[in-house]
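Hi R.,

Here's the chain you asked about this morning:
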Amino acid sequence: MSAECWAGLKSHAPCRWAPFKAHGLIASRFVARGLVAACLIGLPSLPPAFSQAFKPQLGCLGDNRYPSRPIRVSVVPQRPPAETFAAWSPLLQQLGLASRQCFVLRVAPTIPNFEAELHTGRPDCAYMNPYHAVFAQRWRGYLPLIRDGSKPLRGLLVVRKDNPIRSIRELNGRAVAFPSPNAFAATLLPRVLLARQGITVQPVFETTHSNVYRSVALGRLPAGGGINTTLQRERPELREQLRVLWQSPPFPSHPFACRASLAKAERAALQAGFQSLASNPANHGLLQGILIPEPVVADYKRDYQPLQGLGLERFAVVGSD
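And the predicted structure, written out as tokens:
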């Protein structure tokens, strides 16, 4: 793999997309397909020629006739920002039409940047990992509205398929790739498990799940943390190079959450809008793209409050909290 290709793994930039005009949709789809063309295992770099498609513009996604101001939405960048944008912008367009709302979408360049935004409470709503739901509720009163009900979330540790490592104990003293310090099932769960068994690893944070899988596949690091849903979303050529060494028990999946200060009627419209989209088979691809193929109503006390008892704070980095 060329140095230029490898550099593409790290070349992330924040993305914003407001209007959903025809040329914007075409550009998003073209970029999403073109992100994996440069390298054998599909590097998520954004061609400079398309950078204009991701600059802030006036307007919003959805139905801009109804709300007095757009709802600000932030999405945790598990994938490179351009790919995240390409998945969420058409979904929010349809959600806005279904719920008579409009949205401005923000995708931070890294997961820590996303967490900093949550800490300020700037997003009205956000798609976040389960542990984010815990401290976002404590910080700014975010309430989970919707999560996927089709399959539980499982944390993974992966190695190259030809790697001789067969036990997590063989990782003791080794460097292990993780997406970010606070990635719930991809970082915190495996680190807590390893520590409980007296296994010490040197974490190397690779920004996104996609980068973790590629670092392991390329042999840069012996193992890496991920989750079942992001691994299954990767290209077959990459998945075939990896083997799951360990997986966690099941947990509720990532929620779409909104601040309690958002009007109750608006929160209810969002829940109804997601479920309305799910009732139409034409929208199934959009919901699959954001990893909420079967939206169900989420509940903080039932789904996410129990995470406080797992001891994740030992490794979590929560800024000034």
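The CA atoms of residues 67 and 101 lie 6 Å apart.

Let me know if you need anything else.
M.
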